Q: What sequence folds into this?
């Protein structure tokens, strides 16, 4: 299971990724892994357990079980948030910081990934498209509850803390209840996590960033207590479909023929993944 880095700004406890080497003495090994899921009170929660090859109390979480309870406050804000959801393949994935510079960087990564070049005035069209992507991201961040929408970003694990953060990948996660998806889920499933907007910087592609982003979505589904994740991919995009299939997603339906036979309209497939929520 992916290593996690979690922090609570209101507490002294901190969970450290062993493969990042922060806060761990030379020669010692510390790991953090999920051992529980939903809270007994019925809210979404998570138990993380830390293990260490040493018994030193100076390790950040030696011989401790730290229960991180994710609950809604009266303001609708999460009481605690995880800093890094996944640390794998040389990349770390976390939630987007809501500052202007980082939001702009995330929208630029998505705009570059999804912009379709045109023969005339391509630069001008790209500027309009990037502005539209930025506007959409700002709207979602401003109007979505923090436990209903998240923009996750990937950055190098060896990022210099004194230099500006380099965002190399972006993915959107939204809680939805579309009947077109729910009909493929068990009757007791009322909502699911919908994955969209996955984008990787052109100079960093084919380096497992997308895989790390999808694993972070798995971690978020456990944190939020959702059993199913769904996404859509173009049927002819075999590369993307292979990526999702390797991540555990399976095709359950395709767009109806009458919606995909228009000129320029591509057929999409709906892919669903079931996560194993700890008891």
A:
């Amino acid at each position: 299971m992916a290593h996690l880095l979690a922090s609570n700004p209101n507490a002294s406890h901190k969970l450290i990724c062993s493969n990042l080497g922060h806060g761990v003495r030379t020669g010692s090994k510390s790991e953090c892994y999920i051992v529980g899921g939903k809270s007994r009170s019925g809210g979404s929660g998570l138990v993380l357990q830390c293990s260490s090859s040493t018994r030193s109390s100076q390790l950040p979480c030696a011989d401790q079980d730290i229960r991180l309870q994710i609950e809604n406050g009266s303001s609708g804000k999460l009481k605690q948030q995880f800093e890094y959801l996944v640390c794998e393949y040389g990349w770390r994935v976390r939630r987007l910081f809501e500052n202007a510079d980082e939001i702009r960087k995330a929208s630029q990564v998505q705009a570059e990934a999804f912009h379709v070049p045109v023969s005339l005035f391509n630069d001008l069209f790209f500027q309009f498209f990037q502005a539209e992507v930025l506007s959409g991201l700002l709207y979602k961040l401003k109007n979505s509850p923090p436990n209903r929408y998240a923009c996750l970003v990937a950055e190098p694990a060896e990022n210099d803390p004194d230099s500006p953060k380099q965002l190399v990948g972006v993915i959107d996660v939204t809680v939805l209840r579309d009947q077109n998806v729910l009909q493929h889920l068990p009757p007791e499933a009322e909502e699911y996590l919908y994955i969209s907007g996955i984008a990787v910087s052109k100079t960093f592609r084919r380096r497992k960033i997308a895989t790390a982003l999808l694993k972070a979505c798995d971690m978020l589904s456990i944190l939020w207590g959702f059993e199913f994740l769904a996404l859509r991919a173009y049927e002819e995009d075999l590369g993307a479909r292979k990526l999702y299939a390797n991540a555990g997603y399976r095709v359950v339906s395709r767009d109806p023929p009458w919606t995909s036979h228009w000129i320029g309209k591509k057929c999409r497939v709906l892919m669903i993944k079931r996560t194993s929520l700890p008891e």
